[in-house]
Amino acid sequence: MKQWLLCVLALTVVVSCSSQQQYVNRYDNFNADSIIQNERILLAYYKCVMEKGPCTKDGKNFKRVLPETISTACGRCSPKQKIVVRKLLLGIRAKSEPRFFELLDKYDPSRLNREALYTFLVTGN
C-alpha cells in the first residue's frame, strides 16, 4: 500500500522540473525499488498525490507533473525516466490495484489516455 504510493511519488519526481522537450535528468537514476519496497514511504507519497495527506518537496514535484505524465504516457520522459516511471507504476499496481486505479481515475478521469498508458506499461514505449 505504501510502496505503491512511493512509486507514484517517484514517478512524479522523475518527470518533475519540466522543460520544453524532455524533463530534466535530475531523477534519471532514482531508486524506484527502494520506494516500492517501503510501504510507509509509498503510502505517504500516495496520500500526497491524492490530496489525502501532507507532501514533502519531492511529493509536491510528483503531484505537479503526474497529470502530464499519465496523460502523455511519459511522452516527455527520457529513456531512463521511462524505465523508472514504468517500474513505479507497475509496482503500485502490484501492491494495490484499487489505489492504482484510483490514481488513474484522479489524473485521467475521462480515460482518454488509458490505452496509451497501458501500452507504455507493457512495452516501455
From TrEMBL:
The keyword Signal applies. It holds the Pfam family OS-D. Residues 1-19 form the signal peptide. It comes from the Eukaryota. The keyword rRNA-binding does not apply. SUPFAM superfamilies: Chemosensory protein Csp2 (SSF100910). Keywords: Signal. InterPro entries: A10/PebIII (IPR005055), OS_D_A10/PebIII_sf (IPR036682). Gene3D superfamilies: Insect odorant-binding protein A10/Ejaculatory bulb-specific protein 3 (1.10.2080.10). PANTHER family: CHEMOSENSORY PROTEIN-RELATED, GEO07322P1. This is Chemosensory protein. It comes from Papilio polytes. The lineage of its organism: Eukaryota, Metazoa, Ecdysozoa, Arthropoda, Hexapoda.
